[in-house]
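Re: weekly structure request thread

Next one in the queue (220 aa):
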Amino acid sequence: MPDWEKRVRELQKVHGCEPRLGAEQLTEITGHLEEVYLGQLQGGVDSANAEKRALSEVQDWRVFCTKIFEAQREETMGEMIKKLWLPSLVILILSIAGISGALVNGVFPHGFALNSQAALLLYVPWIFGSFALGILGALWARRIRAGRGATAVLFALPVLSLILLFFGRPRVTWSLVPLYPGRLLPYLASCFVGWVLIPMVTALVGIIVASKMNRKNAIW
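Done, posted below.
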């Protein structure tokens, strides 16, 4: 029996097919060549000619490898869209939608009393929503087997958007900070804690809770 993997690697090298075929693609190709080879043997062809006829299944190895790489690239892009960008976009839209009330009413990123109407109607529900989004994102990533990298992106995108919004919509002019550091810096820090740090931690807690739920279900 010919060493089909070795023969395919040799032909790939001879014809300058780069990059090298992956293990999955190599298994598919060698499996097909072996089927053709065995079929030729059963038809009464000697082993040498059977091997030649099997290898002749591929007329141009350079073109053949190029098609495989293109198909692999398209499959990889499709998987990235499905497992990373689509969930990330949905979570990002939901996280921004949760803060839209504060944006429309001019509360974000301003300071406010925790017992105020704005806090009860806009802020508190949004914080609970951040926790729920953390759980949703982690469970979604787990369901589609997106891996830890996708879960990290699901967490990082809303946080990054909050940071950009916070610094892009200051209540005070940033040039005043050096003039009144005793007042402005504590104020800005309190706003940052309320609108970025707390929801970030809340979402992270949701992700951790969902991860523990997944582990527990896996054990059972």
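The first helix runs from residue 4 to 14. The chain has a mean pLDDT of 76.
Next request, please.
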